[in-house]
């Protein structure tokens, strides 16, 4: 969602803020702003559009030693300069940036700010006016902040500055990510460590409902009553090259290409020195002891859950149920006696998933988070974590995280199955099979030209399309269609191939693109071929993506055959490239599709 960065005690505050915002732009990118103080009166600059627009507007005229910045993904109020953060109190003494959603903002407005003139429509402006009102009534900035935090309900990460004290940033969070970066003679605050790795590798966590006073040489953590909290720092050696595009035109293409390496990294991470699969024994016990696995996730991560369901069920013997996080937040269905919840989340910050985890913790059930981001909220709050080892994923459209999620769950399924003496698990040589998957991905990646050509023929101008498949191919079709919709804006449905004839086939007309996914299960393949014939007979223009072993003359993209548990990984690769080229040929922004944000931290 939105991204926050702040720095105090550094001569290059403006540069640090702008560079930090560039790194956070993936979290939201409809408008941005910075407030810089420390040399003369504080200055506020805001702009609609990308960070490049803000940077051009800032130029080299803003000097200061402290400041806060924000990149926005609109929730309350349309993208505009007035709605862009930072926001200021009525007297302009206080300046605030915020990530999250304040649920009771209208109530606060009515009760406390009836006589205040607000410029925009955001909940954040109401929050800073509230704090400003308390300061005008005589409270110190700290006391005013605390009092407001007691009144505000909802999710937030706040960074607040007082024009009369440019040496301090006041910070608080609840259900939205924020952490402190400890520099040499200065300190920072940021939504994501990635935006601070140029400056520091030493970080400090902030927990929900904690208030932090950040100065250039001190960081004081306290609860909302003002009681001091001891908090150590930790070192995270992130690689700067991981977050650059290198020679790639877009992050998405770089991340697609990284997938064979990610598969190999996962082999290293989840095997021991003898090459045997190695997963934390506490996690294995948690799965062994449960009577049902509930996978909770959103979007692409939800699709990865589906793609792993059959494998998990067959290797662990535990039934697996999938839940859309935003739906399960309202209420749980009837649960089994001993459930285990698995949260799949690239970012580890998705608010929809987190609200389910909060309930799961209240109910006292065990949980496992499968995430790319160690130390993320979902990781910290779950009983166990498995890391995806995919490296930072910056393009909004998730690619390498999806394949890493399936591979990570394969290690889990294999480890549990072996521990339970499951014959299928014992004979499943995961390390070997995953190496073959890495090779298969490499071979698909070498066919980019062919895939680009097919996309030009089929998807350059169409308004709609279908992906169809059966079994696991259906789950891949769901993900493939999300990817295509998300970045090319082509309306696309991922459909169970056999279900089409029960109504939706009426949408097929002359030239409708239908992309059929057919993996090497002879029964499924022959039924899927039948469904392909049905759409061809109604004028569809078909593209087939087929695994070796069931290919036929005229098929468009042939993939190496891999183990059925892992075929979703290899099958999704051409569909990622299809989405990429469709977007490119339609002249759209690959890495930053409209209306979206990478990390969805609002419910
Ligand atoms: C699509 C995409 C989203 C995310 C979803 C959940 O390409 O990335 O659908 O998968 O917003 O995010 P995480 O995995 O961070 O919980």
UniProtKB/TrEMBL annotation:
One GO term describing the cellular component: cytosol
Superkingdom of origin: Bacteria
Enzyme Commission number(s) of this protein: 2.6.1.16
Span of domain SIS: 283-425, 455-593
Coiled-coil intervals, chain numbering: none
GO MF annotations in UniProt: carbohydrate derivative binding; glutamine-fructose-6-phosphate transaminase (isomerizing) activity
SUPFAM superfamilies, per database record: N-terminal nucleophile aminohydrolases (Ntn hydrolases) (SSF56235), SIS domain (SSF53697)
GO terms of biological process kind: carbohydrate metabolic process; fructose 6-phosphate metabolic process; protein N-linked glycosylation; UDP-N-acetylglucosamine metabolic process
One family name in Pfam for this protein: SIS
Active site residues of this protein: 2 (nucleophile), 598 (for fru-6p isomerization activity)
PROSITE patterns per the UniProt record, alphabetical: GATASE_TYPE_2, SIS
Alphabetical keyword list: Aminotransferase, Cytoplasm, Glutamine amidotransferase, Repeat, Transferase
Assembly information from the UniProt record: Homodimer.
Designated name of the protein: Glutamine--fructose-6-phosphate aminotransferase [isomerizing]
């Amino acid at each position: 969602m939105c991204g926050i960065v702040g720095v105090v005690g550094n001569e290059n505050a403006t540069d640090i803020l702008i560079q930090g915002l560039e790194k956070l732009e993936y979290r939201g990118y409809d408008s941005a702003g910075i407030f810089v103080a420390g040399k003369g009166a504080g200055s506020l600059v805001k702009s609609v559009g990308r960070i490049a627009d803000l940077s051009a507007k800032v130029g080299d005229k803003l000097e200061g030693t402290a400041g806060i910045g924000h990149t926005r993904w609109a929730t309350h109020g349309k993208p505009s300069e007035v709605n862009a953060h930072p926001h200021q109190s009525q007297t302009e003494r206080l300046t605030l940036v915020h990530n999250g959603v304040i649920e009771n903002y209208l109530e606060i407005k009515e009760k406390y700010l009836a006589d205040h003139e607000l410029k925009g429509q955001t909940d954040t402006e109401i929050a800073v006016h509230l704090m400003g009102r308390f300061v005008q009534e005589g409270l110190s900035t700290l006391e005013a902040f605390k009092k407001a935090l007691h009144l505000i309900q909802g999710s937030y990460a706040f960074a607040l500055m007082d024009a009369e004290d440019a040496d301090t940033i006041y910070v608080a969070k609840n259900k939205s990510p924020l952490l402190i970066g400890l520099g040499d003679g200065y300190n920072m605050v940021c939504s994501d460590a990635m935006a601070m790795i140029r400056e520091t590798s030493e970080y400090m966590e902030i927990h929900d409902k904690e208030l932090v006073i950040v100065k250039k040489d001190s960081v004081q953590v306290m609860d909302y009553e003002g009681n001091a909290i001891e908090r150590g720092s930790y070192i995270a050696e992130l690689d700067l090259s991981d977050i650059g595009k290198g020679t790639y035109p877009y992050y998405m293409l770089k991340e697609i290409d990284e997938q064979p390496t990610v598969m190999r990294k996962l082999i290293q991470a989840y095997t021991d020195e003898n090459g045997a699969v190695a997963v934390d024994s506490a996690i294995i016990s948690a799965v062994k002891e449960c009577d049902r696995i509930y996978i909770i996730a959103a979007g692409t991560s939800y699709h990865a859950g589906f793609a792993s369901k059959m494998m998990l069920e067959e290797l662990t013997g535990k039934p697996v149920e999938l839940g859309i996080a935003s739906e399960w937040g309202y209420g749980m269905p009837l649960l089994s006696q001993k459930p285990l919840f698995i949260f799949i989340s690239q970012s580890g910050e998705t608010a929809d998933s987190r609200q389910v985890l909060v309930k799961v913790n209240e109910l006292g059930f065990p949980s496992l988070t499968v995430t790319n981001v160690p130390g993320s909220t979902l990781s910290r709050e779950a009983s166990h974590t498995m890391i995806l080892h995919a490296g930072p994923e910056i393009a909004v459209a998730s690619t390498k995280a999806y394949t890493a999620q399936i591979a990570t769950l394969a290690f889990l399924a294999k480890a549990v199955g072996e521990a339970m003496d499951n014959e299928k698990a014992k004979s499943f040589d995961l390390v070997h099979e995953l190496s073959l998957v890495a090779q298969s991905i490499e071979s698909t990646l070498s066919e980019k030209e062919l895939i680009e050509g097919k996309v030009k023929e089929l998807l350059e101008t169409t308004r709609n399309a279908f992906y169809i498949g059966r079994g696991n191919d259906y789950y891949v079709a769901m993900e493939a269609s999300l990817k295509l919709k998300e970045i090319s804006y082509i309306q696309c449905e991922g459909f169970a191939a056999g279900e089409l004839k029960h109504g939706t086939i009426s949408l097929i007309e002359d030239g409708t693109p239908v992309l059929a996914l057919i993996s090497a299960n002879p029964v499924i393949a022959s039924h899927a071929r039948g469904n392909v014939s049905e759409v061809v007979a109604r004028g569809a223009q078909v593209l087939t993506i087929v695994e070796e072993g069931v290919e036929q003359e005229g098929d468009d993209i042939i993939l190496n055959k891999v183990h059925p548990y892992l075929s979703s990984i290899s099958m999704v690769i051409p569909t990622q490239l299809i989405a990429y080229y469709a977007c490119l040929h339609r002249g759209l922004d690959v890495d930053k599709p409209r209306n979206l944000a990478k990390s969805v931290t609002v419910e």
